[in-house]
Design goal:
- The protein has a single domain, classed as 5'-nuclease (Rossmann fold, 3-Layer(aba) Sandwich).
- By secondary structure, it is α/β, with parallel strands linked by helices.
- The chain is built from eight helices and six strands; from the N terminus they run E-H-H-E-H-H-H-E-H-E-H-E-E-H.
- The protein has a six-stranded mixed sheet, sandwiched between helices.
- A hairpin with a 2-residue loop joins strand 5 and strand 6.
- Helices cover about 55% and strands about 15% of the residues.
- The chain is globular and about 40 Å long.
Length: about 140
Amino acid sequence: MIRVVLDANQFVSALLKPGSNPDRIMRLVREERLTLLISDEIRAEILRVLNYPKIAKRLSLSPEELTLFIDRLATVAIMTPGTLVVTAIADDPSDNKYLACAVEGKADYIISGDHHLLDLRVFQGIRIVDPGTFLEFLGDETGR
């Protein structure tokens, strides 16, 4: 099964925009057609972003519901140890957590809209693509 790491904004987009490419990717995770990799550091960032007032207001979820969502991620994903230190992105060091998670979890893809990650294109054999490109690749791989 294809193993993926999603950046925090992909989760936010999936929640805010039903039918969007990130939402389609999350649906594939829920259908167990993709294996989601995540670390505690990534879960913490997702929770932080979801609690931004502008985003929380649009989601209409309580802090408890947001925390429950983050906790559920650990049940549908493979948790990586979060011990690997990567320093490949100097301009935005916080993005290195996605690279570390991907390496630790032996990911096939990192899916992101962040140019710091996308500019790398590949890291230690792991392809870094935006959601639309990933879905195109996935269609090619599955013969759709």
